[in-house]
Task: inverse folding
């Protein structure tokens, strides 16, 4: 196993939303703004566990909805990082935002804090799809937010969701066209998942909501690949599309299995082998941090081989696939010693290509990729 350098990437989880969307199972509290002060105090305390400043290539604030903190809250949040999380010029600093929160005042605060990129939870530009997804913003909020951010020179990612209840292929087509017309340099496309414990899943069980069906879901994903490629986006990871030169550097660090730091409830940090995940409950995390006890809820210490197998999965999710020599030098394992059987099978089924130096999934492989990983992880 190759020794890992100090992390140059950090994730901060901001667990607040105005409202919990029916499909969402993320670690957050909705309508509990009374907890913001306590959260910020705890976050400052957790960041202060770093005994030396971390100089970052990327910093990512996700949630929840970081923009729910508003302009003043974002300034307070960045002030906590102070000399501990340092994002110098040239670093990628991303903040997730609900389009409804993006005001001129919020954008000015984000710029002043060094934010270079905003990831907008747009999901759709069709009012009926947004209603079906239980979202609390409208299409005009998305257009206004993108305009304000671009005017301020901030890069924008738009998250788009497919397979919403009742959504047609034509509606996805219209959404893709509308998103491409916004001129954002990055688009992420996710298919709705029905998570246990969510309002959507309980309505599905009672027959009140129905998934769109596997064939339509695949057709939507393939349409996204075609439409976004036609609009000049490179499909560089299963769910991610970017204009050349505008891939998300933070996610690329995850997919390269580089070490990263993480703070906040449910945030998982990684040292190259061990993933340590904070307690999911925002209130339990706050209580533990403020009491000076360990906020970790789960510690996943992988063997070198398990880490290498995970590297295969994240590598194959990328369009570039896995370079055998780079894989060996990063993991200490030969790719074929771990996955020769599955690779040969996928090739025979037209799901993967192997030129001897590199292995990558074909378009057919990417479409069914979630079903392939058990072959590698064992
Ligand atoms: S805005 Fe995002 S994080 Fe918040 S509840 Fe909705 S889907 Fe979940």
Result:
């Amino acid at each position: 196993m190759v020794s890992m350098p100090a992390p140059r990437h950090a994730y901060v989880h901001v667990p607040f939303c105005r409202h919990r969307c029916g499909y969402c199972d993320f670690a957050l509290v909705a309508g509990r703004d009374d907890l913001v002060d306590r959260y910020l105090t705890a976050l400052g305390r957790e960041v202060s566990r770093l005994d030396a400043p971390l100089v970052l290539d990327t910093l990512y604030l996700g949630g929840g909805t970081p923009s729910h903190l508003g302009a003043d809250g974002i300034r307070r949040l960045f002030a906590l990082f102070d000399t501990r999380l340092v994002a110098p010029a040239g670093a990628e600093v991303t903040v997730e935002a609900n389009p409804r929160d993006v005001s001129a005042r919020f954008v000015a605060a984000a710029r002043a804090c060094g934010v270079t990129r905003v990831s907008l939870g747009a999901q759709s530009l069709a009012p009926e799809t947004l209603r079906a997804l239980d979202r609390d913003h409208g299409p005009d909020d998305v257009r206004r937010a993108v305009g304000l951010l671009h005017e301020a020179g901030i890069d924008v990612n738009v998250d788009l969701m497919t397979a919403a209840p009742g959504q047609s292929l034509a509606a996805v087509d219209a959404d893709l066209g509308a998103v491409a017309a916004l001129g954002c340099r990055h688009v992420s496309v996710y298919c709705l998942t029905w998570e246990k414990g969510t309002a959507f899943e309980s309505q599905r069980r009672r027959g009140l909501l129905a998934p769109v069906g596997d064939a339509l879901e695949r057709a939507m994903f393939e349409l996204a690949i075609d439409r976004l490629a036609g609009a000049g986006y490179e499909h560089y990871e299963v769910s991610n599309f970017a204009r050349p030169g505008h891939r998300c550097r933070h996610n690329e660090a995850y997919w390269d299995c580089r070490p990263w730091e993480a703070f906040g409830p449910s945030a998982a940090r990684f040292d190259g082998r061990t993933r340590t995940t904070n307690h999911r409950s925002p209130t339990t995390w706050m209580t533990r941090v403020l009491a000076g006890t360990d906020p970790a809820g789960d510690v996943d210490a992988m063997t070198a081989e398990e880490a290498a197998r995970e590297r295969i999965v994240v590598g194959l999710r990328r369009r570039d696939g896995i370079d055998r020599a780079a894989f060996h030098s990063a993991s200490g394992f030969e790719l074929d010693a771990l996955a020769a059987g599955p690779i040969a099978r996928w090739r025979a089924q037209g799901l993967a290509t192997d030129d001897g130096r590199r292995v990558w999934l074909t378009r057919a492989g990417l479409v069914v990729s979630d079903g392939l990983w058990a072959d590698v992880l064992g």
Notes: Residues 319-377 form one domain. The chain has two domains: 9-255, 319-377. The chain is about 40% helix and 20% strand. The CA atoms of residues 163 and 214 lie 9 Å apart.
